[in-house]
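Table 4 source record.
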Amino acid sequence: MLAVIHSRGYVGTLRPNPDGMEFVYAPQWLRRKDAFPLSPRLALREDVWRGNEVLFFFSNLLPEGTVLETLAKLQRLPRGNVYRLLEAYGRECAGAFEIVPAGTEKLSESKLTYRKYTSKDLAADLDQLRNRIPLLARHSELRLSLAGAQNKIPVRYADGELSLPVGNAPSTHILKPALQPEKLFPDSVVNEAFCLHLAAALGMNVPPTVVLTDPEPMLLIERYDRVVTGERIERLHQLDLCQLAGVLPDHKYESDGGPGLGDCFGLIDAHSALPAVDRLHLVDWTIFNYLIGNADGHGKNLSMLYQSDGSLRLAPAYDLLATGYWQNLSDKMAMAIGGERRPAWVQARHWQRFCESVGLNPVQLRRRARDLCSAALAKRVEVLGSLGASIALDQHIAATLDRNSERIERRLGEVGA
């Protein structure tokens, strides 16, 4: 059995069963006045939860793709056995919960321990990454996991130094090295840094991010699902939109059955404490991804974050990349605009359908899109200059912003006209 732990106490128990897994909330959690469910799809109740809803929630806590396959091989586990994978790698997931073997949950009450993470240690881990061995595989007692398809390192960053969490200690930042293999994805660190810094310059809600250079360029991203108060680090619970929609991570793309833009707006309408505000944030996210040429904005790249009062709000934007920079990737957008996934083919009628399907005022959309485009063009040089981007990336970003802002201006200008 696995214990699901929150800083407030024992939340419940995850158990294997012949059909996969089952979850039951702990009686003491149900008695708490400040108790909240793992997900709106797993409401608080005494009865055992079985079936797909349990699978939808817990499978989305694991890494994906080749990262998951390699982790499974290291522990000689079947890739599809979510329970066994969580048992091995579920201690430091995205969000608020620790998932630990039952009987070890009292470790969560112990003193938090961190190990200094030197440049030499990091260099050794990065060498393993190039040999297709997951980051932190050398550290057998550090059972760390982060959802997503990219290798990432959860770390604590304080006073300019990195350290690795040991046992139940929470991380405060995520360290993202270059995408592998680098020859296929050059400049990935500066690419993502530019997109996040540009989004911040436009007033979008994104986590603080810096580029570290020792021993090589890496992106250090402050975790928005952690609150640091002195020596105390609190985990905040979040749900990505695949969890909220009841979709497996393998189906995160709209073309595979994952949420599209209409679904995302619908989930915000259904669950956000301030849906009008969060809808505007999602509008910005949609326009910005089109503007920078990010074809990989899927359902796991949007999350909702539990607030202190138990309500949900759209989380800061993350995983923003100008994917068009890499010619080996498709330019088809993960989420269609008005039924069209090819950015060059998005016409006025597609923007009109998009507005109608999610209940947007076309005039307001046009005004907001123009504001974002003009601000992005004005801020581009300053942001790229601060990051020391390569000439190739600089030229690509300039051409992409010019081309896509012109498309937005021309085609959105016809919407509702």
